[in-house]
Amino acid sequence: MKLPWSRRRRDRELDEELQAHFRMAVDERIARGESRESATHAARREFGNLGVVKEVTREMWGGGSLERLMQDVRYGARTLRRSPAFAIVAGLTLALGIGATTAVFTVVHGVLLRPLPYPEPERLVLLSYQVKNSPWVSSPGIADRDWVELRRGTRLFERLGASSAQLVTLTGAGDPVRLQGAAVTADYFATLGVRLARGRMFAADEETAGRNRVVILGDALWRDRFGGDPRVVGTTISLDGVAHAVIGVLPPGFAYPYDAQLWRPLELTLSPNLSLQLSVIGRLRDGVTREQAVAEIESVAGGAARTRGGGTEVSAATVTSLKDTVVGDASRSLLVFAGAVGLVLLIACANVANLLLMRATSRHREMAVRTALGAGRRRLVRQLVTESALLWALAGSVGTVLSVAGVRALLGLAPPGRIPRHDEIGVDAVALVFALGVSLVTGIAFGLIPAIRATRPALRLSMASTSRGASRRDGRLRGALVVAEISLALVLLAGAGLMAQSFLRLRHLELGFRPDGLATMTVDLPKTGYASATAMQTFHQSMLERIARMPGVASAAAVNFSPLGDALVRGDFQLDGGRTRPKNFLVAKPSVSPGYFRTMGIRLLRGREFTRRDDATSAGVVIVSESVAEQIWPGEDPLGKRLSMKDEPGPGDWLTVVGVVGDIAQRRLDGTRDAAVYQPYAQLGQTFFLEHMTFVTRAVDGPEVVLAGMREAIREVDRAQPIGSIGTMNATISATVAEPLFQARLIGAFSVFALLLAGIGIYGVVAYAVAERTHEIGIRVALGAVSADVVGMVLRRVVALVLPGVALGVAGALAVMRVLTALLFGVKPNDPATLVAVALVLVAVALLAGLVPARRASRVDPLVALRSG
Fold first, then answer.
1. Chain segment 762-775, per-residue pLDDT in tens
2. Cα gap 219→398, rounded to integer Å
């Protein structure tokens, strides 16, 4: 390949050589007696077209294709400079489409396509061995006893690791703080293939009591609380009031599992009556399949269960790719976003293709001139396609820059924790290649049709004809592109409408309590400082007394498992008199203080609330929710009935029902209400039910004004006790619906952009059609047509474009919207009201877009129009 400057030098030398030969031929003829003028003309006839000679000579040099490409690029750049308005409008349209597409692709690639950042990640799996169809199981895992057997008896796994989530309180490193931690086995990090940035991993004997007071810090915690001090390894920190030695620091970005910030050894104490569910990962040996691993788990763990006499329940093993587990259900939302932004890109490309068609119509004379000068159709098509590709490439460059901001916006707007692997997401080489590929492919694909249309032989043969007839023939293609834009925009609008309806219905659900005016604060008491139930109850009572005395507080109460919180115990219970429960009937088991139902605004249907007299010295009582009363004692008065929370209740374990309250949304915001059995926290003797507590206040005015006082109250009771979370109940509900809101906003933004592009497309086609028919309109006006007739004629063109687009869009929406089923609440994907509403919106936007050129057409001066025609 010749370098550009080398080729320019050879071009100059070729010009000089051809000129020298030309002068020699002229001089030779003059020497034979011809005049200079006659000799010059004869020499020119003899040499022929010097341009053709140059082209043939360059072909002999080689690299002609590259040279012609560079010529086309330079010519295309000059053409775009001569039409700055077209270049800016088309470029920005494409840049936004390509930028949005690249941003969503970057997130999809980072979450779904990129391998996990561990050695040989395809061999990493998540293991589960659980009772089939059990109402108790909420996430994949293996019971501690089965884990011990599997760890001892496996042959198909190179390594295994188990973990359990832990919340711990860190003190002595700034203000007390509650942190998400994980208890893991000694070989957990080795199973993943993670190397520590500093220090060492856990030793096998550190899984035993007395030797497990060691901790490994996450990089973020190390930098935030310890200033990134490398000497932190070997120091001692306090976790839940117990001294732990720091033995290592993990590398940046690692927070697996549970988004943990620190890790401690997993200590197991097997009990015949209690079972701890563990999350277990494994690294398969080379050549081992998941089916073989499932068979081994069922053989080892199932055999051990039968030996223990636990063969009455049927359990099943599953082995899932760790990547699928990490991604979770985020893949569905991301793929929906990818499809939506793909539609936006298609609409943008169709819009620009329409602009190219209109622009090509004005270049028919240029194409005819170039044809007359010897250019073939293939050469002209290549020139126009190169111009389109250049436009798309420039737009792709701008779009890539925009995609960086787009990725940040997507990650920033997404609810915390809802986009997995967010630390790994960024515009990298793969995203740049994707943007380049999208730009070139769409540029060639959507630039080829206008180029072919612009170089048709019938158009090139007549240099003298106007472009009106050709434009009319192109009008059908431009109309088809607009119809396609409208149909795609309707699909997006339908999705946005469904998502918006779903969010609104979710947000306005009846919860069974009144969230307005409620402020909440959660604390987790460490067992080191509060070892007994009495100590915990004393703390809670002191907190309630201080909060109740605060200005602006109407009432205050406490509940261990607050509605829509992140902690809850559900289970069964025993009934007095041999009565049986419905199969798999589980209830939430909150423990509350007196005044809880009044403070929360939960309806008391029968009986009474708890009082201060319901303490450890009085008979045990409970309050049941409405569905419990209906399921257990249908048609009977539940007051005075007895139940027990013990598996084998003794005489003192029976609790009397003293009240019935309404069901509330305890676990999640999905329209369901949860059955619940409430106990007074003052009658509980188990610390497990008392260490996690949420204090609830109903404020006289706004709940925000009491938050500072609640913080001060906990400092007065125990300055070393951190706050787990604090805020308003409305904020909790907003966080619960944050993901559907994010989905609705994102799809809504895409659909608005699509609607804007469709409106621009309609405007462009109609405005161009009006310009083409100016002469015709002038004749109509001269013959007596009034403004309303002209406006009606133009708007009929709009309707002719909109109706087919709406029909195709409705059909497409009915076919596509089924993918949104899992993301919708309270609305069907084929909801007719939504389809009608978005169709009307599109028709209104289309008529509005066509109204401007219609009014312009109605003001055409017939004399000017006829003169120009």
1. 877 777 777 666 66
2. 35
